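Ticket #4471: structure export looks truncated?
Reporter: QA, pipeline team
Priority: medium

Steps to reproduce: submit the single chain below to the structure queue and open the exported record.
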Amino acid sequence: TYRRTQLHSQPGSMVPVTITPAVPVTDYLRLRCSGGQTLEVPANVSPQWLGELLKCLD
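Actual output as written to the record:
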């Protein structure tokens, strides 16, 4: 299909964003991507949410 062709023909990309939590976070998980990007998320993030995020980034 058109969508499948478009997804496979374009390289993935990341857009830098900053999300400020309502409550200050003191501990972070820093994940380094193979392209040199760093993903920083609160240490208390749900493992299920983090797993879904990583699947989307794959």
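Status: closed, not a bug. The export was complete when the record was re-opened. Leaving a note from the reviewer for reference: The helical segments are 2-9, 47-57.
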